[in-house]
Specification:
The protein has nine helices and six strands, in the order E-H-H-H-H-H-E-H-E-H-E-H-E-E-H. It is elongated and about 55 Å long. The longest helix has 20 residues, at 70-89. It has helices at 21-34, 42-48, 53-64, 70-89, 98-108, 120-130, 152-161, 175-183, 213-225, and strands at 8-11, 112-115, 137-139, 168-172, 187-190, 203-205. Helix 1 (21-34) crosses helix 3 and helix 3 packs across helix 4. It has 233 residues and is α/β, with parallel strands linked by helices. The structure holds magnesium ion. Residues 12, 14-16, 50, 173-174, 177 line the site of magnesium ion (MG). Magnesium ion (MG) binds next to loops.
Length: 233
């Protein structure tokens, strides 16, 4: 036996399934220029990886030296989303091994969910590339009270699937996302994309999803859960 399968696998989207963080790079730089600022400092860009729209917009306004009035925040968010939509519509590149893992999990009959900080409109555009048939549920950042790093999106996904969050394996690429999944009590497989991700008690890591497969997934899940699962031997 390779290990116990998780009750469900919960996938982050940007930087985990698809390499959309590269497209966010472009739309953020474009929007900062539109605000009269720029270039986008690496440190400021890193802050926004895995974050929600409001946080990204406020970071851009701060970097541009523009006061974050309600109107400015709304206008900037609209510009950023429109620019990102244009880029998403041209198609999204898969992260290595991500599609193969979705196929394998689907084939094994393990439920999967998409759990993203990105809003529903952009997520639905991305799902044109990713496909909707893999997921028994999809939860977006604008559908819960608090986006990642709060656990809300993960708790909601587990609720929709009818499973305990602690029985799930989440796959994440960012510190923000890994913190959200861990706060929900899920085991987290960290596969970094743009920025380094610190270790944590419920975290395991790999450089890539390529070659993992469902047996590998079960092994990772069981290894992380082992210290607290069952009596000591
Ligand atoms: Mg991500």
């Amino acid at each position: 036996m390779p290990g116990d399968m998780p009750a469900a696998v919960l996938f982050d989207m940007d930087g985990t399934l698809v390499d959309s963080e590269k497209l966010w790079d472009r739309s953020l730089v474009d929007t900062l220029g539109w605000l009269g600022g720029g270039p986008l400092r690496d440190e400021a860009r890193r802050e926004t990886v895995g974050g929600n729209l409001d946080f990204s917009v406020r970071t851009l306004l701060r970097e541009a030296g523009v006061e974050a009035t309600p109107t400015r925040v709304a206008d900037t968010a609209a510009h950023l989303v429109a620019r990102t939509e244009e880029l998403f519509l041209r198609g999204l590149p898969w992260r290595p091994g991500a599609r193969e893992l979705l196929v394998a999990i689907h084939g094994a009959g393990v439920p999967a969910a998409l759990v993203t900080n990105t809003g529903r409109r952009l997520t639905d555009l991305a799902l044109r590339t990713i496909g909707t048939g893999w997921f028994a549920a999809t939860v977006c950042g604008d559908e819960v009270a608090h986006g990642k790093p709060a656990p809300d999106v993960y708790l909601r996904a587990a609720e929709l699937l009818g499973v305990a969050p602690g029985d799930c394996l989440a796959v994440e690429d960012s510190p923000t996302g890994a913190a959200a999944a861990e706060a929900a009590g899920a085991v987290v497989l960290v596969v970094p994309c743009e920025v380094p991700v610190p270790d944590g008690p419920l975290r395991t890591r790999r450089d890539t999803l390529a070659g993992l497969g469902v047996d590998g997934l079960a092994r990772l899940f069981t290894d992380v859960r082992a210290p607290s699962a069952g009596p000591a031997r």
